[in-house]
Amino acid sequence: MFRSCPISNWVIGQIKTMDDITFSYTKLTRRYGIKFLHDNVSHIDTKKKVVVTDNITVNYDKLVVSPGVELDYSSIENWDSSYSDVFPAAWKAGKETALLAKNIKNMHNGGVVAISIPLSPYRCPPGPYERISLIASYIKDNKPKSKLIVLDANQKIVSKGKLFKKAWDDKYKDIIEYRADSKVVEISPSENKLITDFDDVKCDVANLIPPQKAPKLLVDAGLIKEKELWASVNAYDFSSTMAKDVFIIGDSTSQISVGKVPKSGYVANSMGKVCGLAIIAELYELKKLPPSMINTCFSLVSSEEGISVSAVYHYDESLKKIAVVKGASGLSPKSSSIIKDNAWDWANAIWNDMLT
User: Are 49 and 138 spatial neighbours (Cβ–Cβ below 8 Å)?
Assistant: First the structure.
């Protein structure tokens, strides 16, 4: 099943359920005759041009890799993978999303929720702030004696800062306590604490979103440069700079090579289309077209209202990178119910685009 990261915050905020963001691949496979192998990739050999899974070896002519992000807990003292039930990240839609939603719902009135935000870049820049807003909205309506403490490793809100700040000041002044420059460096599972260089934060519900990097699979395959965290690609077609006939798309790509585009679902979708067209051109010996991409990111600030940011991108020949088209980007002037409706419409449109 496909579980969508976009809209998963709505599950945590008690607006939607996991069923609302879970889909079958059946229509996609039947309509296009695609052979799906649901398996774990253990190794990629770019010289022999094979992908090795737990159960099979697949030869390839062209390989597209979209592995997303790896959650990196190496800088957090006392961390053990068994603690994910106590400190869920819920940054990959699935079991932890459902767990965090359940923990929020079951928390007593007067409880404390603590959320940590890693240093940028990470998957979905406004994602943590939307999650904060939706949890605060649920608390306001259902557990008004409760509190939400935000530990942000960044110096300020990374995306749509003024709009999020205004919404928090207007709606959740007595609920959200926002602390910038507050990187979580240690945990105490026995006491349910998130620990920074300045504070120990004890809470009833913890959401520890750790730093992120490209998965080890790409490192082992030689697709990431030494001492770098993300995969270097050619911004024109997203081909790897490290191996021939390999293309890398989505959150694992390096902004140094691609350009300043966010690690968002919409950008990943755009990358996939640019990459697919480039592969067609290579197979049929056609001229590759310059990439054109779009991103619109919707974020709810309450259960009823949202904000948005949009941009159109092109390939900048002088930079050899993806860049915003001049005059083709901007923020919504304020939050509104229309933007919430637009967000749900967008999600349904992109799910249909990918899966039917």
Answer: no
